[in-house]
Specification:
This protein is α/β, with parallel strands linked by helices. The chain has six helices and seven strands. It has helices spanning about 1-10, 20-30, 45-50, 65-75, 110-125, 155-160; strands at about 35-40, 55-60, 80-85, 100-105, 125-135, 165-180, 185-195. It has a seven-stranded mixed β-sheet with strand order 3-2-1-4-5-7-6. Helix 1 runs parallel beside helix 4. The radius of gyration is 15 Å and the shape is globular. The mean pLDDT is about 95.
Length: about 200
């Protein structure tokens, strides 16, 4: 899997574009800048945007070629988000240290998903928010990106269970049109969540 992502991100173009995810962008703009953690951040579009807004950014991805692209974009935009090559299995941040953990198209198999979501909750400060956008199972019929394994797509029931210890403020299934580079382009069936740590 790592080889697949290294190869994809090694392309000259930014395969998911350089603009931030719209849902993340709209929510961060409403918030006072603080500390944000961005797991699986790919080519850094979201990390760079958060840094431009004044957030203290910790981002990571397990692809080394993704990090190289993220660093290139950060340099072009004259910001310095902290970006590491790391796997969700081993990555740790201090407990209660982040104002936001943003999971943007961070899809995992079941056991790893539960681990990733538990870590995200642990990293959040009380009052901190999870901002999540991912594909729901209807996405399997579309050609606009996402895993082709339905078990890696997220339902309301999955997210309700994973984040049951948080106050869920938004949990919605919706259809959208993605324009996030050549691998996220077209009609998409997505799920969005905002949840706050008590």
């Amino acid at each position: 899997m790592k080889e697949f992502w290294n190869e994809r991100y090694a392309q000259d173009t930014f395969v998911y574009g350089t603009e931030p995810n719209e849902f993340l962008r709209d929510n961060l703009k409403k918030m006072e800048a603080g500390k944000i953690i961005l797991p699986c951040d790919g080519e850094g579009r979201n990390a760079v945007f958060a840094a431009l807004l004044g957030w203290q950014v910790n981002a990571f991805d397990f692809s080394s070629s993704a990090k190289a692209k993220a660093n290139k974009l950060a340099k072009e935009m004259n910001v310095s988000p902290h970006y590491e090559t790391a796997d969700i299995h081993e990555k740790e941040y201090p407990e209660n240290s982040a104002n936001v953990v943003a999971l943007i198209y961070a899809h995992f198999p079941e056991e790893l998903r539960k681990l990733a979501h538990q870590k995200a909750i642990k990293w959040l400060k009380p009052g901190g928010k999870i901002i999540l956008e991912a594909f729901n199972p209807d996405q399997i019929n579309n050609n606009s990106g996402g895993p082709k394994n339905v078990e890696m797509l997220y339902t309301k029931e999955i997210l309700k269970e994973d984040f049951k210890d948080l106050n869920i403020e938004l949990l919605e299934i919706t259809e959208t049109h993605l324009t996030e580079g050549k691998y996220h382009e077209g009609k998409a069936d997505i799920i969005r969540l905002i949840a706050t740590k008590p």
